C-alpha cells in the first residue's frame, strides 16, 4: 500500500528494501545499453540475488515508469508447447526490445526474453487461456506510439500462432557512417646486432623474447629495462616482469606487462 512504511520500522525490513532499491537502480545502465531485462532478472534469480516475487515490481518500475515501454495483456488463445516458431518469427524485428511476462496461476510471474530458447524452457508448456503480458520499446527510439501499439498486436499474434507480418520498420537501421578500421600499431625495429625476436604491438599484453647469449645478468636486465620503457605508452605506467629461463647453454629473457601474465615458456 502506498504510504505504508511499516516495512522500514525494523532493520531487517529496511535492509531488504535497500537491497531491492540498489539492485533495481543498478539495472538502468544495462537496459539503456540494449540488454533485455528478462535476461538480467533470470540471471540474478539463478545467482540468488533476487526472488521471483521481486520481479513484477521491478518490471513495473523500470519498463513502465522509467523507460515507458508499451504493454498489453491477453489470455493466450492456444497451448504453447514449443517456442521455435516464435523465436524464428521475431528474429528479424531487431529494433524491437520485447519482454514477455507469463503469469503462472500458482508459481507467479516468469519473465521471458522471447528470442532466447533458454528463457522459454522453464515455462513450457503454457496452457491455453493463461495470461501473457507483452512489453515493447524501440531500441533506436525511431518508432512512433502508433507503430509500437501495432507492434504489440503483431507480437501477440505471433504468440497466438499467426504468421509474422512483413514489417520493415521493425528492423534496426544500419548506420550510414562507416567506422574507419583501426590502423595497426607500428612495430619498433630491434637495434642492430641484437635479436629481440617478434614484437607484438597494439593491445596489451606486449610480449618480447630476447635471447642474448653473450651478456651478463646485469647487462641483460639493463637492456630489458630500456626496451620496456621504450615500448610503454607515454600516458600509462606499466609494470614489467622479467623471467630468466635457463635451458642448457641457452639463456633467454621474457618480459611482459603486468595486466596479463602468461606462464607458457618457450623451449
Overview of this structure, please?
- The protein is α+β, with helices and mostly antiparallel strands and 267 residues long.
- It has helices spanning 11-32, 37-46, 55-66, 84-90, 117-120, 145-159, 217-231; strands spanning 70-75, 96-104, 108-112, 131-138, 207-210, 240-247, 250-257.
- The protein has a 4-stranded antiparallel beta sheet. It has a 3-stranded antiparallel beta sheet with strand order 5-7-6, with helices on one face.
- A hairpin with a 3-residue loop joins strand 2 and strand 3.
- The longest helix is centred in the first third of the chain and has 22 residues, at 11-32.
Quick take:
With 267 residues, this protein is α+β, with helices and mostly antiparallel strands. Helices cover 32% and strands 18% of the residues.
- Distance between the terminal alpha carbons, to the nearest Å? 71 Å
Gross geometry: globular
Strand content: 15-25%
Mean pLDDT score: 76
Number of strands: 7
Order of secondary-structure elements: HHHEHEEHEHEHEE
Structural class: alpha+beta
Specify the helix fraction band. 25-40%
The profile of the biggest β sheet is:
4 strands, antiparallel
Strand order of the largest sheet: 1-4-2-3
C-alpha-based Rg, rounded: 29 Å
Summed up, the helix count is 7
The low-pLDDT segments are 175-187, 193-215, 230-267
Amino acid at each position: 500500500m502506498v504510504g505504508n512504511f511499516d516495512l522500514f520500522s525494523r532493520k531487517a525490513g529496511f535492509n531488504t528494501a535497500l537491497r531491492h532499491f540498489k539492485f533495481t537502480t543498478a539495472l538502468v545502465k544495462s537496459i539503456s545499453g540494449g540488454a533485455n531485462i528478462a535476461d538480467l532478472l533470470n540471471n540474478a534469480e539463478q545467482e540468488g540475488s533476487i526472488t521471483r516475487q521481486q520481479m513484477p515490481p521491478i518490471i513495473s518500475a523500470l519498463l513502465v515508469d522509467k523507460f515507458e515501454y508499451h504493454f498489453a495483456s491477453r489470455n493466450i488463445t492456444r497451448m504453447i508447447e514449443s517456442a521455435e516458431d516464435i523465436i524464428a518469427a521475431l528474429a528479424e524485428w531487431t529494433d524491437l526490445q520485447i519482454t514477455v511476462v507469463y503469469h503462472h496461476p500458482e508459481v507467479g510471474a516468469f519473465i521471458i526474453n522471447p528470442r532466447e530458447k533458454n528463457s522459454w524452457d522453464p515455462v513450457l508448456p503454457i496452457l491455453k487461456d493463461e495470461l501473457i503480458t507483452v512489453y515493447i520499446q524501440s531500441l533506436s527510439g525511431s518508432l512512433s506510439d502508433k507503430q509500437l501499439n501495432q507492434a504489440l498486436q503483431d507480437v501477440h499474434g505471433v504468440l497466438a500462432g499467426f504468421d509474422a507480418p512483413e514489417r520493415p520498420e521493425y528492423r534496426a537501421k544500419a548506420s550510414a557512417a562507416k567506422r574507419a578500421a583501426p590502423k595497426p600499431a607500428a612495430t619498433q625495429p630491434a637495434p642492430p646486432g641484437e635479436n629481440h625476436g617478434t614484437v607484438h604491438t597494439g593491445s596489451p599484453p606486449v610480449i618480447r623474447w630476447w635471447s642474448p647469449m653473450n651478456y651478463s645478468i646485469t647487462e641483460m636486465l639493463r637492456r630489458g629495462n630500456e626496451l620496456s620503457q621504450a615500448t610503454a605508452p607515454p600516458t600509462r605506467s606499466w609494470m614489467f616482469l622479467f623471467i630468466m629461463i635457463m635451458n642448457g647453454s641457452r639463456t633467454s629473457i621474457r618480459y611482459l606487462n603486468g595486466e596479463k601474465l602468461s606462464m607458457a615458456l618457450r623451449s
